């Protein structure tokens, strides 16, 4: 539909910001010179795509919702569930991508600055070492930051989706009492610090090898009995 396509282009193209109002239905009908049924069908399509929300009432209107990783994760989770994909499968995809990204960061011109950014996250991990949820959140951010520092936009999108799915599953385990002891978190922090040393030195091969080994160990300790669990879209609303 032409109206839906035009609005989608505006939202996805960045011309409209998150939370910005498109106006009322009456205003949009006048703007696009369409009938009420045609406009409502266009809005239904965009709402189903997660690009708008409709606020009812006198002060209501059509509100822009910018695409983000939660939307991507939700859509991906539905597909993964339909294929009976296990959480371990998602983690294994991340374990393939991250070491390659680590190498990209280490051999990049800004590798020393990248190391400093990762050090800041490690400091947060140490500060929250006795708070399982907060420390785990900082550890997940460490993984996300690696991908951001690699600078490849496609990798960033894919890994945002993967990390969103994995992070929700890990949070579920922690809230059900599956917490690791502080000693385990300290071992993780030491692995992160070693990676930072290799990145700061610009040693791409050693950094990639280290992260390959780390991700292999992390798989068993992190997923545990949840490894075979099928992805649940209800965790990604």
TrEMBL record:
SMART domains in alphabetical order: FCD (SM00895), HTH_GNTR (SM00345)
Domain HTH gntR-type intervals: 1-67
Keywords: DNA-binding, Transcription, Transcription regulation
Protein's name in the database: FadR family transcriptional regulator
Protein source organism: Nocardia bovistercoris
One Pfam family linked to the record: FCD
Record PROSITE patterns: HTH_GNTR
CDD domains xrefs: WHTH_GntR (cd07377)
GO MF, any single term: DNA-binding transcription factor activity
Coiled coil (residue ranges): none
Domain of life where this protein originates: Bacteria
């Amino acid at each position: 539909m032409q109206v839906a396509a035009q609005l989608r282009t505006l939202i996805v193209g960045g011309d409209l910001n998150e939370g910005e109002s498109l106006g009322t239905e009456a205003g949009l009908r006048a703007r696009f010179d369409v009938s009420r049924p045609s406009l409502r069908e266009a809005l239904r399509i965009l709402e189903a795509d997660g690009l708008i929300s409709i606020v009812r009432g006198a002060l209501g209107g059509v509100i822009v919702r910018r695409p983000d990783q939660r939307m991507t994760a939700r859509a991906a989770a539905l597909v993964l569930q339909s294929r009976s994909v296990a959480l371990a499968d998602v983690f294994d995809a991340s374990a393939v991508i991250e070491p390659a990204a680590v190498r990209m960061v280490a051999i990049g011109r800004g590798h020393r600055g990248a190391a400093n950014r990762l050090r800041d996250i490690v400091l947060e991990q140490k500060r929250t070492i006795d708070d399982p949820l907060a420390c785990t959140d900082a550890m997940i951010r460490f993984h996300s930051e690696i991908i951001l520092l690699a600078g490849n936009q496609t990798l960033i999108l894919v890994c945002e989706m993967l990390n969103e799915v994995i992070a929700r599953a890990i949070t579920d385990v922690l809230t059900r009492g599956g917490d690791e002891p502080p000693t385990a978190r300290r071992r993780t922090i030491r692995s992160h610090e070693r990676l930072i040393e290799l990145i700061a030195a610009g040693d791409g091969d050693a950094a990639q090898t280290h992260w390959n080994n780390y991700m292999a160990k992390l798989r068993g300790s992190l997923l545990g009995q949840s490894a075979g669990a099928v992805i649940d879209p209800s965790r990604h609303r």
